[in-house]
Design goal:
Elements (H helix, E strand, L loop, with lengths): L1 E7 L3 H12 L5 E3 L13 E3 L5 H7 L3 H7 L7 E4 L5 E5 L9 E3 H10 L6 E2 L4 E8 L2 E6 L4 E9 L17 E12 L2 H4 L1 H7 L3 E6 L2 E7 L5 E8 L2 H5 L9 H13 L6 H8 L6 E7 L12 E3 L2 H4 L7 H18 L4 H12 L8 E2 L2 E2 L10 H8 L15
Parallel strand pairs: 1-2, 1-10, 2-7, 4-12, 10-16
Antiparallel strand pairs: 3-6, 4-5, 8-9, 9-10, 11-14, 11-15, 12-13, 13-14, 17-18
Helix pairs in contact: 1-4, 1-11, 2-11, 6-9, 11-12
Length: 392
Amino acid sequence: MHTPVTIIGAGLGGLTLARVLHVHGIPVTVHEADPSPSARTQGGMLDIHDDSGQLALEAAGLTDEFRAIVLAGRQAMRILDPDGTVLFEEADDGTGGRPEVLRGELRRILLDSLPAGTVRWGRRADGARALGGGRHAVTFADGSTVVTDLLVGADGAWSRIRPLLSDAVPAYTGTSVVETYLFDADTRHRAAARAVGGGSLLAPSPGREIFAHREAGDTLHAYTALSRPLDWFTAIDFTEPGTVTATATATARIAREFAGWAPELTALITDSDTPPVLRPHYALPAGHRWERVPGVTLLGDAAHLQAPNGEGANLAMLDGAEPGRALAAHPDDTEAALTAYEQAVFPRSAEPAVYEGVELRGTDSADNTAQGLIDLFTANGRRAADGPPSRP
């Protein structure tokens, strides 16, 4: 089968590109490994930035749809010391530049905006090869192959398209996150719910931190970060779907690393209503780039995977919008469009996340403290709702 534009990966970046191409009348096909849109959960809350993610949605013609899924009040923020003392709190008055939405809902509006059949489900790419003249063949797990004039790798950290352009592979950053959920929190997990409040909570400390967000209704979604070697985590039984005993053992082991912390904070670990999920953080080398290869490019984590810093989804969508607009502007010169796009995207892998000119601190930093984060939030009188991104 031959297709003019083929995108591998139906994440936010790949779908944004597909939508922008569709808006400009450019045919496109997206191949996704998941067997269906509902095959797995799509993660938690995302703050969509007015200088990146919202611009991408505007290019996709989906601003109204985006506004319809914003969860009011979720830009509220509080920062706690490990003893549970609230050191900083800001309400959501609706004027912040980073409204919160559920990732799954954002993906849904992108999928709904595409013609039926644009996304081919259950299509896991195993690899790709160059055919010459800018054309490439992609082989899938079922043995089938497609040939395309333009191939875009939007297939994440372990991209099967990246080897066409780069030998780089992600490396472990030294920090992992354990993900937990608490349901019906206002009635079943009252202390934790009061600690989180109506938006998000961050309790940082060198080498460890707890981040939690109130999602739709009274669901609390928590991320517990620890700077430890990978083998430290693999010694813990994160059985999934997990027995009650395995879940309790794993969460208790993680909670021991927070001995002395307030019980309403550690409850976000130990009281999980779901098996804890381990999510190691990986990153591509800083400054990752590649030489221009005709007919192929990368976007999102396939291009510039970094440790989570609140920017990933926003940049992935911006990555998707930019080549879509460039291709529309250069309908007879794909290489000029891709060159312009790549010159814009390469700096994203070299520049650390900053706030008011100050580099954001990693979890393992000695300065990863509540007061340090407050100083970043309040620099030059800026609002917390427009402040540094949450890392998980």
